[in-house]
Every structure is written in structure tokens, then in C-alpha cells.
Amino acid sequence: MNEELIRILVATDNHVGFLERHPVRGDDSFNTFEEIMRTAREMEVDFVLLGGDLFHDNKPSRKTLHRTMEIFRKYCFGDRSVQVQVVSDQKMNFRNSSGCVNYEDPNFNIDLPVFIVHGNHDDPSGDGDLSAIDLLAATNLLNYFGRAQDLKEIHLAPVLITKGSSKIALYGLGNIRDERLYRIFREKNVKWVTPAENRQDWFNIFVIHQNREGRNSKSTITEQMLAPFLDFVIWGHEHESLINPWESSAGGFFVVQPGSTVATSLIEGEAKPKHMALLEVSGKEHRFTPIRLKTVRPFIMEDITLSVAQPPLDPKDTDAVTEYLAEKVEEMIEVAAREHPPDPDYPNLHLPLIKLRVDYSGGFSTINPQRFGQRFVQRVANSEDILLFVKRRTQEKGKKTAA
Amino acid sequence: MNEELIRILVATDNHVGFLERHPVRGDDSFNTFEEIMRTAREMEVDFVLLGGDLFHDNKPSRKTLHRTMEIFRKYCFGDRSVQVQVVSDQKMNFRNSSGCVNYEDPNFNIDLPVFIVHGNHDDPSGDGDLSAIDLLAATNLLNYFGRAQDLKEIHLAPVLITKGSSKIALYGLGNIRDERLYRIFREKNVKWVTPAENRQDWFNIFVIHQNREGRNSKSTITEQMLAPFLDFVIWGHEHESLINPWESSAGGFFVVQPGSTVATSLIEGEAKPKHMALLEVSGKEHRFTPIRLKTVRPFIMEDITLSVAQPPLDPKDTDAVTEYLAEKVEEMIEVAAREHPPDPDYPNLHLPLIKLRVDYSGGFSTINPQRFGQRFVQRVANSEDILLFVKRRTQEKGKKTAA
Ligand SMILES: [Mn+2]
Ligand SMILES: [Mn+2]
Ligand SMILES: [Mn+2]
Ligand SMILES: [Mn+2]
């Protein structure tokens, strides 16, 4: 084992509890979050870094809380020795009453530390201004960091993590309403606290959970706004997996957008392969290795235009249109089946998500998606909403949904 | 230290989270629950036994959950060695995924075990049929037992606890709707599982959370219905503290009703001193020592009849009636102050609960209790509902509230 190499399993937007009561998809978010934690354990990484939206609901159901606690309990405890050290002020870094990183509490045998910032889905709220993540921190299951104390002036104090001579300054910022954070950045009220000594020796990571791209420039944090001394930025919140880091035009740092680990919207960005990743740091060098997630439900999305069908369709012949669309869905199911054979560990996971966007301009009528879906109930995971009728294909482009 | 003596701190109906948003009383339930856990630690008891209604709300607020977790985390962990052994099938006894009593999980340094049954306030519900207590069990903060698997036939399998030659068979039954449980008992579908060997050597404790007394015999579990081989019955749910055990007329066992640790109704039964207790068991001998709780807010309740006031009051002179009642409240505040001097550890705990039941028969009118209370805002904890107007004093007698 390389005593200088810090190995980090990175994932974001796990949205556990998403559609938890759905008869087919109910376990999807849990299966994948468990895959992540199991992988982290198998790879014996130094720690797991989560980029927010661990929970889908601000108030997760009791069952979701319970299942999530059981996953952490199953994978974070054991007799390995943790190789990294947190050398910054732990009381300042973490939200919990013990005042230390979870694996240093002598009453808990934690051997896989998890560090997490909150997202907009699991942000602090209500009496006590607590996040659901605070319940996991209170029970010492993880380390919750990156929570701004004062929105007038945000002090980004890093968690300083060392292993041998490798040193990571881990900056994090839990989600803040985009317009507000934009203003705080613009007014230069984000203060980056840097290590007192040998600032240039640290590998500086930043975890952020905000809009990265958007129409409205006043609600989008850009790479240009970030500190130029950063080395690597992990961008949560955006669900499309852009898993190959790019060098920012703004400075000398790399940016990656791991994307969500479960599709919460049946849109193009979520139909692409989903990932976690291994980030390895040695000195100022790093390597980033995408890991495709195996427990992601197949999702096939296509567009079809009724007016150009061959042979041509009669707009008044609803039965013919229905059969035409059903045939198309059959083809999509076949594509999904070729790519994702059944897995005995996940009995229903091969049932695909199918989204067929139907351009019905040219005098065609819509047909009832629920009724259409009935024939696919046992074969498509989202039989209730396979079809989406649009007038012109472009309407849907660039539509943004809450991530 | 006596190696045969099993020492148990007993409490019930802690109702944490009760009135948590009340400006004066919000911390009361937490203060007292923390007093119990602190006392258990200071006394170095072998374990804590809780009789249900740990939480006041079936869905405790995030803040209440968080505060409760922090209390368990503060008092249940450490380096003492636990002297008792659980020799029954732990997987059968407890609701958790680890399948063992919490202090035997090698990943947790528990040194003060807590055993608990659920009450009607924190009973299992919703998707997954989980109790809020399950969240504490999943995070290994306590041991949740006594949950009936099958209501057609309830198998009461005890937690068998030994220390040297002393042996406790701890039976528990989380709350079941009274009418239903009555029927199950009547139809002889409660099966008491007894230790395979030397049945007569065990000290048999039963923790139950049901109505003990009530008008309707079909919704009241009586001592006669319980197994005659029991030695000691701890009766939760009833909030009046009847802290001196009585020998049951039904069999050879003792019964105690510790009562709630916070007043959730301003009725006579809750105005009495509140208690936890130390139950000590050595062989088949036991000793039960009440411990008066110190953090309970003073509660003075009195009755007054306007028509017999001296000098007589004019029913039409509302101002005079108001002043008469205010004077009475002043006297009650003085009584409370004499008995409960301010405690610097609990800055507002000396503010008393005051309940004055006013018999206004004889042509008197009621006066607005909110307006009346305004003059006592800084001096009475429940200034908003000091006065209760009744027509004849007997109306209130025997009134039952959900416990
Ligand atoms: Mn988000
Ligand atoms: Mn998200
Ligand atoms: Mn009760
Ligand atoms: Mn109660």
C-alpha cells in the first residue's frame, strides 16, 4: 500500500428515498447508494466524499432514514485502521456535538469515514435549523461539513487531511439558494481560508452543490468565481454525469460533475451512464478514475415524429398510431434487454425506464399515456409515463428540473 | 461491588418533545430525560429500563430526534464494563439488524445499556411499520424489545439477563390497542415463554404499557390477566406516579406504576411528585427504591368555588372576581416558590404550572383565561391556561386523558 496516496471514493446526488413507494423503482436509490458504499469498502479507499442531496426529501420518511442508517452501519464500521488524519480544527469543521471527526471518537469503531455537504434537497430547515444529515452526524455515522455559519460573509475553512506527505485541503459548501450565493460571491464576501503554512503544498479540493449552467446568469455560479488556487472541483447538484474532468478556462483547476446516481427526471441528461469515481491524490498530483455504476436501471429515451412515419400514418386512425408507438416501445425494450441482462441479485432491475417523446404535430391527437402503459406494466419500470407528447421537438430542449 | 446484585434504573413515559415549542416549558421533557440518564450513569446501574412513550409524538420533530440521540450518545458510551449478560436468543429479542444486544456489538463502546418497549405515543406505524424507537435501535443507541410479531397469538419470550447467579427473565409488551389486547388475553392467546431450565430460579419482570384502570372493563388489562409466576410488574402508560409497589391481589407479584416524568396534562394525577426508581434484584429477592425527580416543574392545582367566597362576591362584579382569582393564584405561586427555589442549572424551571379550577355556579360568568394569564406571563409557566371554569367540581373527576 502506497503510504502517500490518498484514495477517495466520490459520488453525489444519491437521492435516497426517491420514489420509495413506487412498486418497481422503490429500491433503486437504495440499491445504488449501497453499491457505492460497498465499493468504497471493497476498494479500501481512505474515505468517501459525497456532494449533497444524499436524501431526496428534506424530511425523509422514517423508513428511508432507517434504511440509510442501516447502510452506513453496515459499511462504515470495522477493524481496518484509517490512514488519513484530520489536522484542522475538527470542532470548527464538523457539525456534531463530539467535536471530532467520526473515526476519532473512541466509542465508535469507524473504519470508513464519510464526508458530506448538504444539497438543496437535504438542506437545513425548521426548528433547530437541522438537516436530515444532522441525524446521521449526531449518531456518528458520517462527517457533515461545509455548512456556512453566516451568509453575510462565508468563511470557507477547509478540512485539512494528511496521509504521509500528501496533504488535501478539502473545501466544501452546502447548497445555498443560487441567487443569494451569486450575490455573496459578487460582493466578494466568500473568504477562502488557507492553511497557515506551506500553502502551496496542499492539494485543494472544493465540493459545491449549485447550478453550474443555466439561462439566468444571476443564479449560476461559474468556474470564474472560484478561487484560482483550487486544484480540483467536484460539482454536485447537476444530475447529468460529466465524468471526465475538464480543465477550467478560469484557472488552473480541474472540474468534474459526477452526476446523480439515480435518475430523478426522465430527461436526456439522466439517460446517460451514471458514475461514481475514484480520486487519487499524491502530493500535488492527482488521478481521477470514473467507475460506472452497475445498479442503475436501464433508461432508453427516444424521439419520434408521427408525421414522418413510414408507411405514413392516418392522423385519425388512433389504433394505428397506438400500435405504431407500441412497436417502437417494443424495440426500445429490446435495446435495453440486450444491454442489461437480468441480474439475480436485483430481480426487477432489468425492467427499463422507457421514455418516448412523441412529436404529434400534423393533426395527430395525443393518446392516454396511462392506458397505453397498461400493456407494459410487467416489462417497463415506468409504464405509467412512457409517452410524452410534444408539439415540436425543440420545446423540451434545455428544460431544467430541480436537481 | 456485589457481583450478584442486578441494579436497574426504571422510568417510563418520558414523552420527550412534549410542548417542545413552548416558550417556557419547551425543554422540560428533555431536562428530565437527561436527569434520568445522568442518574443512571452516576449510580452505575447495570441497565436502564424504559416503559414506553419515550417520544411524545409518533413522528418526533427532527429537533427532538436529534436532541434525544445526543442524550443517548452522551450517557450510554464509555469504558465501564457491562456486568450483565443476555443469555436468550438476542436475534429474537431485539429489533435491529445486528442481531445482538447493543453493548455486544464490537463496533460500539456502549457501557450503559437501555432496554425499552414502545408505548402508544411511539408505536410502530406507516411504511415499514417502524417506531421512532427503531431509529435509535438502528444506530445502536438502545435495545428495543417486547414487540409482538403476531397479534393472533402473542408469544412473550423474555430477555434473559444474568449476573453471577442472579437471573432476570425480562418480559415486555409494547402497547397494543387496549380493546384488542383485552380480547387476545381473554381468548388465551398470550403465551408466556419460560426459560427451559430451572424456571423457578428466575426473577420474572414484566413491562407493560396499557390502561390499568378504567371505566370500560373491556379495554383494561387487569393484574388478574397476567401470568401468576411473575415477580414484578412495571406498569407504564398511566401518568400518575404510584411509586410504592403493591402486592397484587391476583398473584404473588408486585406491581408498580412509576408514572410519567413530565406532566402532559394539567390534572390531579400529574400534580403529584414524579419519580424514577432503582430496582435491585439478587436471586429471587428484590428491593425497589423510588427516586424523586429533581427537574420536574412545580405544579400546583387547586379548586375554588366562587359562590362560597368570604367576603361574598357579587356575580356581576367581574373585576372583583378577577382580583379574587388573581389573589388565589398569587398564593399558589408563593406555595410553589417555597417548595422549589430557583436552580441556577435550570434558569426558568422554578416558574410553576398553576391550575385553578373555578366552580362558577351560582350566576357567575367565566372570564377570559388568556387575558387573565397575561399578568402572570413572567411568573407562571402555563400563564395561557391557568384557569379552568367548571360548573360543579365533580365534573372533572375521573376524566381520562391519553397517556
Ligand atoms: Mn441538488
Ligand atoms: Mn440532486
Ligand atoms: Mn401511553
Ligand atoms: Mn404516556
Please, could you describe this protein's structure?
The structure is a homodimer of 403-residue chains. By secondary structure, chain A is of the alpha/beta class. Chain A is built from eight helices and 18 strands. The first copy, chain A, has helices spanning 28-42, 62-76, 90-93, 132-138, 178-186, 268-271, 318-339, 369-373; strands at 6-11, 47-50, 85-86, 114-116, 143-144, 154-156, 159-163, 166-173, 190-192, 203-209, 232-236, 242-247, 254-257, 275-282, 285-292, 299-305, 353-359, 387-390. In chain A, the strands form four sheets. Chain A has a seven-stranded mixed beta sheet, with no helix packed on it. A six-stranded mixed beta sheet of chain A has the order 5-4-2-1-14-15, covered by helices on one side. The first copy, chain A, has a three-stranded parallel beta sheet with strand order 16-17-18. In chain A, α1 (28-42) packs parallel to α2. The longest helix of chain A has 22 residues, at 318-339. Chains A and B meet through α2 and α4 of A and α2 and α4 of B. One manganese (II) ion is lined by residues 53, 119-121, 209, 237, 403 of chain B.
